Amino acid sequence: MFVDHTGLAVALHRPVRRIVAAHPDVASVLLAVGATLVGTCDAARLDGPGADGLADLGPAGRPDPDMVAALRPDAIVTAVRGRAYVLAGRDLLAALRRTAPVIGLDPTRRRAATADVRALIGPVSVERPTPPRPRPSVPPRGARPVPPPAARPDLG
What we know:
The chain has helices spanning 24-32, 65-70, 90-97, 110-121; strands at residues 2-3, 9-10, 18-21, 36-40, 55-56, 75-81, 84-85, 102-105. It is α/β, with parallel strands linked by helices and 156 residues long. The strands form two sheets. Strands 3, 4, 5, 6, 7 and 8 form a six-stranded mixed β-sheet that branches. It has a two-stranded antiparallel sheet with strand order 1-2. The longest helix is centred in the C-terminal third of the chain and has 12 residues, at 110-121. The radius of gyration is 26 Å and the shape is elongated. It starts with a strand and ends in a 35-residue tail after the last helix. Residues 124-130 have low confidence and may be disordered.
């Protein structure tokens, strides 16, 4: 269970990896902590790392439910004002809930929103490139192996 900023306990059916944001302010918080955002409303308002290539789902607070469903998100995160979701009505909220759990975050409470997103998505691993392993030197074909220095006969 995850308690969102409306005070509602939201049941999560699987780990949250793919997220849709119904507001660009919420999307900014999600991107800042490294969440995998697959779509957002008003995508043109976003810039910075991770903002390129996001599906634009419509105006803020009015994501197209069919477009959201096509992205197969694990959760849909929307803005909260007071204790209410900032969405274009109850019918939209019901349609979104048929796709994935809807979670409300107050993006004006940046510190709390950031902490809650981190709790929601778990630790984000930053993939670091693995340094290449040194290749063993292989003598060319037909070459005679050279014994190590300690094993060479004394030529003196």
